[in-house]
Amino acid sequence: MQYQDVFCRKEKKYMLTSAQYRHMREGIIARGMRPDEFGLHTIASLYYDTPDYQLIRRSLEKPVYKEKLRLRAYGSQVLPDDTAYVEIKKKFKGVVYKRRIAAPLPEAVHSLREGIFHEDHGQIGREINFFLQRYDLHPACWLGYEREAFFSDTEDVRITFDENIRFRTEGWDMTLPPAGQPLLDEGLYLMEVKIPFALPLWLVALMNECGIFSRSFSKYGTVYMEHIHSGAPLHPAHIRKEHTYGQVL
User: Fold this and answer.
1) b/e per residue 221-238 (b: at least 16 CB within 10 A)
2) Chain CA centroid to CA 243, Å
């Protein structure tokens, strides 16, 4: 085991057109926000769920408390000996709590398959073990996308832009090429703002300039509703440009 991470924050999501994305990106850079050290990078996540999709069904009901478990890796091509992250993500009364542990990909996959992490993985490992013992979990949905993240040196705010969001409902090997069916129309971006408390006023003003409003959106939830639960054929587009909220620039 390499290290453990704990995150606690609020997350707000926004669907952007290409023009809105450019406006926001330019605006936050002008405000002094900087890209993180990874630049534009690929994220691949494998979500685990029960055979009847209990976790995502409960999440879509918008309860006060919800939780999910996923395996995450980074890079345009994940290699067999790369580091992977096993993450528990919980949300209670609008606050997101994320805990994760890092391990070599084979170790992480084996531990998830066997349903137990070794005791030297610490408190987060024990939480994951409890999660695995509580639910009969299996791989349920693969999601990949490109992300650019920005942070502020003076304010506790992080903003990410996700593009080319794609999914698979089979093919769970994380070392496969990160390809899948598109989830959004071409030219749409998912912006997430991660903050400890309220949005900074300058950021609210910037979003108001081009009519950007917060909306509820779950990548895995969208796959479930549009391509798993409905039994519909795979097609590109739960979210259409004409369905985005606010002004289309």
Assistant:
1) bbbbbbbbeeeeeeeeeb
2) 21
